[in-house]
Amino acid sequence: MILIFIFAFLALGYMRGWLRLRSRSAEGVGAWRATGFLLGLVLIWIAVASPLSWGDAHLLTVHMVQHLVLMSLAPPLIWLADPVRRLTCALPSRLTESVVLPIARWRPIQRLGRLLGHPFVCWVAATTALVAWHVPALLTLSMQSNAWHAIEHASFLAGGLLFWWPVVQPWPTSSTERPWSIVLYLFLATLPCDVLSGFLVFSERVAYPVYLSAPRHASVSVVDDQQLAGALMWTAVTIIYLVAAVIVATRSLSRSSLLVEVPSALDVVCDLQSGLVP
């Protein structure tokens, strides 16, 4: 129930900001952005709060679907929706000018933002979340504790959001990262996934004994389920990262940025202060 309230609050806030921008300008308010944001929220809900999410206690494949949704599907959809500007524009102007902007301009916050947005930090964070929660002991802990299960999901989503930040770049940045370095970044991110998925696919022994005692509502064996989960991750990650790399490379060759509609932070401030966004 709490998650539904949070998702509804975010969806309504985003749509309020999107409608405000749409009523004031014909630029940067594509309906596909709103669709992507709402789809991202729906995917997160499916992964962590829908009846499908209960299946991870029985099948590793369901756990892998959750992992892929939270780290590889929902985050890029959310960032491509330009949520920072939309949610900022949804706030009352006085609140934005008196609270949000001073906090955003505070140097420690800006330094923290630059640190968290650095590709190396983002890669390490995502890789750590991936590897750590697939260690048998930690996965077993998350399966036996609702609190740790929630932390696992939160770390997957946080790691995914951080990972896709340098790729999508949803907020103006002074980063000098070149598009081709992002292609390399995506390639390097596939390596931990390849190692883990390869182990799951080719291993003949059960990697996660917790599933041996779990109730099974399918005819698939624990080993078959494990191999299917590994194959799913191997295929999905390869396709998603390859598509992202092709888009980045294509935009680079055409001398176009990954996001062509993202305004500068000063544009948002000026809009708010000049009353264009009431």
Helix-strand blueprint:
Elements (H helix, E strand, L loop, with lengths): L1 H23 L6 H18 L11 H21 L2 H8 L2 H13 L1 H10 L2 H14 L3 H9 L1 H23 L10 H24 L19 H32 L11 H10 L4
Detailed description of the structure:
- It is a single chain.
- The protein has 278 residues and is mainly alpha-helical.
- It has one domain.
- The chain has twelve helices and no strands.
- It is globular.
- The relative contact order is 0.13.
- The model is unreliable at 256-278 (pLDDT under 50).
Largest sheet data = none
Spatial extent as radius of gyration:
20 Å
- Total number of distinct structural domains: 1
List the uncertain runs: 256-278
**Residue share in helix:** over 70%
Number of strands: 0
- State the order of secondary-structure elements, H for helix, E for strand: HHHHHHHHHHHH
Distance between the termini: 32 Å
Percent of residues in beta strands?
under 5%
Task: List the keywords.
278 residues, mainly alpha, 12 helices, 74% helix, globular, disordered C terminus
Q: In brief, what are we looking at here?
A:
By secondary structure, the protein is mainly α.
